[in-house]
Specification:
Elements lengths: L1 H67 L4 H23 L9 H22 L6 H30 L2 E2 L6 E2 L6 E4 H11 L32 H12 L7 E6 L5 E5 L3 E6 L5 E6 L10 H14 L5 E8 L3 E10 L3 E13 L5 E5 L1 H6 L12 H5 L6 E12 L5 E11 L4 E7 L5 E10 L2 E4 L1
Parallel strand pairs: 1-3, 10-12
Antiparallel strand pairs: 2-3, 4-5, 5-6, 6-7, 7-11, 8-9, 9-10, 10-11, 12-13, 13-14, 14-15, 15-16
Length: about 450
């Protein structure tokens, strides 16, 4: 009996010894397959964004051409709206690429200005004025640089498809077989950025005009300068990282000088004067969507409050790739919404982490406005509204002009006979109709045009 029992135990041990490595190998193979599948899906997503960016730039080029040759104000208005829309789509596609460690200032500036400049020109044409030769020349210049950018993107897309460019997050991948250097997406994007380095200054009456970049930020102009050590301490507190985990990424000059820090995945910029957060960027890609838009908006508001940004109210948001980007504006006295004091904040929908913050609007414009007593009641201001609109609600707001000024307005949220949502801004002192925005809402958020 003992001999038989011993044999059984030995057989079982042999079976376990053979089976356990097999199970482990199967488990590892399954995990590897999942990782490869996830990586393939991620690269497909990046390639789709590249393809979309190429298509948007082509549409933008065509729309610019048509804009130049429009013969009526109505056609001009339609084409400038197309320019604005395609430029915005292109910016979103560019933002969806894994290029967080690069400073694509020229690329974003071009896409911001081309759409905004078209809108600015439409205001001129809609008032019965013809474009000047200088304005036509500027449209040709924008078209030329848009074509140059698209040529670079088409080349990048082709090189990705042929394997000449790697989408891996490495600086320079070298093939062991051929010892030949393989370009990365960062390399090619950097070349594109350099090709736009001589992009000329564009001055016009709009929020992306280059003259605005020389304005003095109201938040920092009277604040004392902090040291780099103090800025690092603030950066660590905001990111939740230790000071040792954040390396110095240099200083920026201009009208909003900053200290910058990062660790490869996270980048953060702190103003030299006053020590305010300028921007935060985390390149982590959310893995899913487990948080509702409403909860994400609340998370963003609480995060801003913890950072010292009180009385911020959300206005609109947009969902893109398991990320929600929310616009928050300062509410003076808790009720008057000051749209120029804007902070854009992005929350990951998988775990509620704040991934990005952009506070330029707030830093440039925030102030306690003294003269915010309306000369007109809401009812009096409503007399300037179209009879085709039905008012749902109203509130006092401060809105930016297309240049660098502000207008105190009554904001009327209306519906049309076609059930369209329309925002109309009536000057709270004069009753002039300052701005009209059509609101488009879907499952991904809200867009105003």
């Amino acid at each position: 009996m003992n001999l038989q029992l011993g044999r059984r135990c030995l057989i079982r041990l042999i079976i376990f010894a053979v089976a356990i490595p097999g199970v482990l190998i199967t488990y590892l193979c399954m995990n590897y397959a999942r990782a490869v599948s996830a990586e393939t899906a991620l690269e497909s997503s990046y390639l789709k964004n590249i393809s979309n960016l190429s298509a948007y730039l082509e549409n933008l080029d065509n729309a610019l051409t048509k804009t130049i040759y429009c013969g009526t104000a109505a056609a001009f208005g339609e084409m400038t709206a197309t320019v604005w829309r395609e430029a915005g789509f292109a910016k979103d596609a560019l933002a969806g690429l894994p290029l967080s460690e690069l400073n694509l200032e020229n690329s974003y500036r071009l896409l911001s200005q081309v759409g905004d400049y078209a809108v600015s020109l439409n205001k001129t044409v809609s008032q019965g004025q013809d474009l000047t030769q200088e304005q036509v020349d500027q449209l040709y210049t924008l078209k030329e640089y848009t074509q140059s950018m698209r040529s670079q993107i088409v080349l990048i897309e082709d090189q990705i498809r042929t394997g000449a460019i790697s989408l891996q997050k490495v600086n320079h991948a070298v093939s062991n077989e051929s010892s030949q250097e393989i370009l990365t997406l960062d390399d090619s994007a950097e070349e594109m950025e350099e090709s736009l380095s001589d992009y000329p200054t564009l001055i016009y009456d709009g929020p992306f005009s280059d003259h605005i970049n020389s304005a003095t930020p109201r938040m920092t102009q009277d604040q004392p300068e902090i040291s780099k050590e103090e800025a690092l301490e603030k950066a660590a507190a905001i990111t939740g990282l230790s000071q040792e985990e954040l390396s110095d990424q240099g200083d920026s000059a201009g009208n909003l000088p900053c200290y910058s820090f990062g660790n490869g995945e996270v980048s953060i910029s702190i103003t030299k004067q006053g020590g305010y957060l300028h921007y935060l960027m985390n390149s982590r890609i959310p893995s899913g969507s487990a948080i509702s838009a409403e909860d994400a908006v609340a998370i963003g508001a609480e995060w801003l409050k913890q950072q010292g940004y009180d009385s911020m109210q959300d206005s609109y948001y947009e969902i893109n790739g398991n990320r929600i980007t929310i616009n928050y504006a300062y509410a003076q006295n808790g009720s008057i919404l000051c749209y120029p004091d804007l902070i854009k904040l992005t929350v990951a929908l998988d775990n509620g982490e704040v991934l990005e913050v952009e506070a330029s609007g707030y830093l440039m414009n925030h102030q306690q406005r003294l003269e915010l007593t309306p000369g007109l009641t809401a009812q009096q201001a409503a007399d300037s509204l179209s009879s085709l609109l039905t008012v749902q609600n109203s509130r006092l707001t401060v809105i930016p002009t297309s240049g660098q000024n502000e207008v105190f307005c009554w904001e009327f949220s209306c519906t049309s006979q076609k059930e369209e949502q329309v925002l109309v801004y009536i000057n709270a002192q004069t009753g002039a109709e300052e701005q009209i925005l059509v609101v488009y809402t879907d499952e991904n958020g809200t867009l105003t045009m």
